[in-house]
Amino acid sequence: MKYAFIIFSDPDIKSELVKAAHALHYAINLKRKGNEVLVYFEGLGEKILVSDNEYIKPLLNEALKEGIVYGACGYCASPPHLNIKDKLLNRGIRLFGDENDHKDLSLFIDNGYQIMLI
């Protein structure tokens, strides 16, 4: 199976942080069981990629190690929005789109992924 976890959850809100952590945990486990898995960060969920939160950071590092972090939305990371584009690029996170081009989920649907929105 092919799964794309799209994480929108804001890590500054505890209940959203827990959702994101579970999504990363599930994605890692599905990958280890032989599934094709990717994780994409959208909107406020992109803050997870630059967070120092002790709860989410180990899971993010494990997802990076497993090679399942596909990238993040360049539109949302751009200066008019979250303004973390440079931080993400410095961490080696691939960005899709920019402040003039907001990509949609067809990035994954067109390639046969089952979408999981978190």
From TrEMBL:
Domain of life from the UniProt record: Archaea
InterPro entries (alphabetical): DsrEFH-like
Protein name per Swiss-Prot or TrEMBL: Sulfur reduction protein DsrE
